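in:
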């Protein structure tokens, strides 16, 4: 269902873009390019509103698909995909502002995926990497400003404190997950060693 909604959403966006292009080209041919630019300018409030209404069904389809996915039980395969996509989002954190919408799933869903992958891996290094990703979710807070050496704007101290509080809470939440995952890996290795010895 969610996949169908995403396909419909992309199709709607494609049709909307085609409609805008045809409208722009038709107006440019009938009157002038300057007139078409004026009509399709983002400063033309009425036309911008109409364009937003035009793409709204596509946005709604994506939002419904996201909510359906969030309610669906998470499989290991889906969790691994979310973690891979999250890794891509993390790589961009030093080159552009971070936004929650750049996450592959809602933040709680990403946390769930990281927990599931950590509890099913046999690689302790991967557990550590997943832990970094877990705490880095604080960077995707709506309160978090872009990291830079520039002075924080007025009121940014509140944002910085909120960010630090979230990062600390995420680290505390991850510690027992990491301990359980590493204990499980150690147990599996000890069992495998005993079986090979016998």
């Amino acid at each position: 269902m969610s996949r169908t909604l995403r396909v419909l959403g992309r199709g709607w966006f494609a049709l909307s873009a085609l409609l805008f292009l045809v409208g722009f080209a038709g107006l440019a041919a009938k009157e002038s390019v300057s007139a078409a630019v004026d009509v399709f300018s983002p400063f033309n409030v009425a036309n911008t509103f109409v364009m937003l209404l035009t793409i709204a069904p596509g946005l709604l389809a994506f939002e419904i698909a996201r909510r359906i996915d969030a309610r669906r039980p998470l499989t290991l395969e889906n969790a691994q995909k979310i973690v891979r996509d999250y890794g891509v989002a993390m790589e961009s954190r030093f080159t552009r502002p971070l936004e929650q919408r750049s996450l592959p799933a809602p933040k709680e869903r990403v946390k769930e995926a990281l927990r599931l992958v950590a509890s099913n891996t046999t690689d302790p290094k991967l557990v550590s990497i997943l832990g970094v990703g877990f705490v880095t979710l604080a960077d995707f807070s709506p309160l978090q400003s872009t990291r830079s050496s520039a002075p924080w704007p007025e009121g940014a101290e509140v944002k910085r404190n909120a960010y630090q509080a979230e990062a600390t809470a995420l680290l505390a939440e991850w510690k027992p997950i990491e301990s359980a995952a590493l204990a499980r890996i150690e147990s599996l290795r000890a069992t495998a060693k005993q079986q090979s010895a016998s």
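note: Residues 111 and 134 are 6 Å apart (CA to CA).
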